[in-house]
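User: Structure please.
Assistant: Input sequence and predicted structure:
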Amino acid sequence: MTLKAKLSIIFTTFFSISTLVALCSSALLMSSTVHAKDSDDYQEDQLMLQALKSSKVSLDSLLEKFQADFPSTVMEIELDDEDNILVYEIKGIDLKEGVRYKAKYALYSGEEIDRHSKSLRFMGFNKLDDNDQTALESLQQGVSIKNAIALSNPQEGSYIESIELEHKRGLTFYEIELLGPSGSTKILMDAKSGEVIPSLRR
């Protein structure tokens, strides 16, 4: 075997080993990053869960307060961080008047910290999204968001993190996220019947 051939083999072997080491290092780094992210998410969930347990108000009472101030169909409720304060943001639409409402309530006290309304009409045209329009019309014979929360049957120690009315592929449903001791759980519920839609794994 010539010197050139030997050098070629040595170089190829060295390159292969270097590549393998680099790939292993990348895999370990990605694994530790994912683990750290999972750990951070878990800690955030636990802090949020503790805040929900300590809250002086219920989601039902905030929902009633919102609908008393803004007569509308509630489309979405979401727990969010607003300047380091956890708030429930509630959105509703008055289909008859063509107005969208939004209000935020401090989780701990229930105090309203922001409100906003917006007309959905412009020069005689309706600016409401077609899917939202269909969802709202379907809901006239269906399950209200308040009843959907009750039907989601949160276990003791679990709370609604978010719930949103959706219309996709001809079906109107609620997408519900529950936060509990074991983390977040997502369920889909038929907005007409109140039945939970089984989730399929791919």
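The chain has four helices and ten strands.
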